[in-house]
Design goal:
Layout lengths: L1 H18 L14 E8 L4 H19 L2 E7 L3 H9 L6 E4 L2 H9 L12 H4 L2 E2 L2 E6 L19 E2 L7 H17 L4 H13 L1 E3 L4 H9 L6 E5 H10 L4 E4 L3 E3 L4 E4 L1 H7 L2 H9 L4 H9 L3 E2 L2 H5 L10 E3 L7 H9 L4 H5 L3
Parallel strand pairs: 1-2, 1-3, 6-7, 6-8, 10-13
Antiparallel strand pairs: 3-11, 4-12, 5-8, 5-9
Helix pairs in contact: 3-4, 6-7
């Protein structure tokens, strides 16, 4: 009898680890009939997902009759990706750039082809990179050239941990590429001068915004457009947004973390959660939260919010994210070189 009981317990534990569907296995195994879904995201999406999660929960209840609780996590995009690989129980990730999701795929947790699972390269919203300055713009900052002048104090996060910081760097690099007609020596010199002017390099974009806005450090913040616009809303008489002559089309990416979703029994809910981002209602909510809707018709509805005429390069100009990361942000590559590491 004792052997039988031990065998039964062993079988149940094994089944729990394999499927996560028995009582006590996985976060959706309880009897409260409430689905739980974890979204691991990057820093500046806090307000967006606080609003979107309410919208989606209402939709999910109407469609399924079930309650759903969205557990939210925020931080620097690269750090967030590493946290998932190291055990953060994300059902979905909504990160700042495709490479961070690819790193989770490379760890065997996301199925290949994720970038084609949802529309627009699994990027339901976009943004770009702008400058935020204090009212009056005392240093006369208008373009990238102004960021390398003596006495200009720049705030930008660290590309080693922040996805937004990677977009910042690439936007600056593309500007130098055109300015110096691919003369890499001059390009590196320009970007090195820019980063020599950086006084604080936070781990994430929201931290950099806090340093500039709340701690009053720096003359200019290189920022996500959505962060800059949110700051203007919150501090309408204290800051100005400057659009540089050339910026970059920043495409945050979303994906289901298949290994965790399978374990937690959330595959269906996770897919619905990300697909719903593309609905008209969600796209308008995205625009209201200062991200650019991927639906071009709805984007035009926000032409008074966004500068839709800004000249944008794209990650394709760098050979895609895998190539860009290897060229610029891998250890001992261009960022480390110009940053003195």
């Amino acid at each position: 009898m004792k052997n039988f009981l031990w065998k039964t317990v062993a079988w149940m534990l094994s089944a729990c680890l394999m499927t996560g569907v028995l009582v006590g296995c996985g976060k959706n195994s309880g009897s409260d009939n409430k689905m739980k879904l974890t979204n691991v995201s990057y820093d500046p999406t806090r307000e967006l997902y606080e609003n979107y999660n309410k919208l989606f929960a209402s939709h999910y209840k109407e469609e399924t009759g079930k309650e759903i609780e969205i557990i939210q996590s925020h931080g620097g995009s690269g750090s967030q990706a590493r946290s998932v690989i190291e055990g953060n129980d994300a059902d979905v990730v909504t990160l700042a750039l495709a490479h961070d999701i690819t790193s989770i795929e490379d760890a065997g947790m996301i199925e290949a082809g994720w970038i084609d699972e949802f529309s627009k390269n699994s990027s339901p919203y976009t943004s770009t990179i702008v400058f935020l300055v204090r009212k009056g713009n005392e240093k006369g900052i208008a373009d990238w050239d102004d960021l390398i002048k003596d006495g200009v104090d720049v705030i930008t996060p660290d590309p080693k941990s922040s996805g937004g910081a990677c977009w910042n760097f690439l936007a600056a690099w593309y500007y130098t590429k055109e300015k110096y007609q691919n003369d890499e020596t001059q390009m590196k010199d320009f970007v090195s001068k820019l980063y020599n002017n950086v006084s604080v390099m936070d781990s994430g974009a929201r931290g950099a915004t806090t340093t500039f806005v709340e701690n009053k450090q720096g003359d200019v913040l290189i920022a996500w457009e959505n962060e800059a616009l949110l700051t203007l809303e919150q501090y309408p008489d204290e800051y100005e947004l400057i659009t540089p002559s050339i910026s970059i089309l920043a495409e945050p990416s979303v994906a289901i973390v298949d290994e965790n979703a399978d374990k937690n029994g959330t595959q269906e809910a996770a897919k619905e959660y990300l697909e719903y981002l593309y609905t008209d209602e969600a796209q308008r909510l995205i625009g209201e939260n200062y991200y650019r809707p991927s639906n071009q018709t709805i984007l035009q509805e926000f032409s008074d919010t966004f500068d839709l005429n800004v000249r944008l390069c794209s990650i394709d100009d760098f050979g895609g994210w895998d190539q860009a990361y290897e060229d610029f942000f891998a250890d001992d590559k261009i960022f480390d070189e110009i940053n003195g590491k």
